[in-house]
Amino acid sequence: MVLNMKRNNIAEISGQDKLVEHKQRVAFHEAGHAAGIYLNNKLRQLPPVFFKIMFKDMSDVTDADIMAYEMTHDDCIARVEGGRLIECLPPSTDRWVDELTGYDKAMEKLINDYKMAFDADIINLLIGPLAEAKHVADSDDELFNHQLVNLRALKNYGGRSDLALANEYLDSYSANKEQKDNKLDELFNLAFDFVNNDENWAAITQLAHYILSNDKNIIGCEEVVSILDDSVERFKNRRRVVRNH
Predict the structure, then answer these.
(1) What percent of the chain clears pLDDT 70, i.e. is strictly above it?
(2) Beta strands in the chain, from DSSP E residues, in sequence order
(3) Domain span at residue 140?
(4) What does the pLDDT read at residue 244?
(5) How far apart are CA 124 and CA 116, in angstroms?
(6) What is the pLDDT of residue 171?
(7) Where are the beta strands (DSSP E) in 84-132?
């Protein structure tokens, strides 16, 4: 009887640990997306876009949900709603650009703005699973580098749906597989650099901790922006203090 009770207690503790780990991974994943949408777009001087972070009630998360995540690495309890600069993709970006090229300066600016928005949307999709991957690496005292975390590895960090949507973008970008692969590699490297930047990582971490400390089903855009701005300002102040000393 005592042995069975110990086993049950161990199983319960193990289940609780998995739930905590699951929540942490989800929090960093969604914080990564949100930081990308706000900070990456801002860095690229792109217009602000509305978004919110949506959560299923964490108290309703079951062992089956966690097991499904461990097997498929695709989470269905949280998502960022909105946040895309391009919501309707043309069948062929190349053809659309060719049709507009040669008009006036306004059309030339429209094409350049579209290309920047196109790249930013994909980068922001990739930042989510990369943020989760960096959190896992940091928690396990492992390195976070291109050799250990590459495009193929993103499916292990809730990135299946993100990659699927990125590929929808790339299907409109070109019919040539090599061109699509090269473009995805280029944008993956930019997303990786964003996550690996100390200032950005501090912002992602602060937002993830805020998510974990609040049992909210919805975190609105203004709330997220306030937290990210606060983190950036804190980071810059710390850097100024270090430089002054």
Answers:
(1) 78
(2) 51-55, 78-82, 218-219
(3) 2-244
(4) 80
(5) 12
(6) 92
(7) none
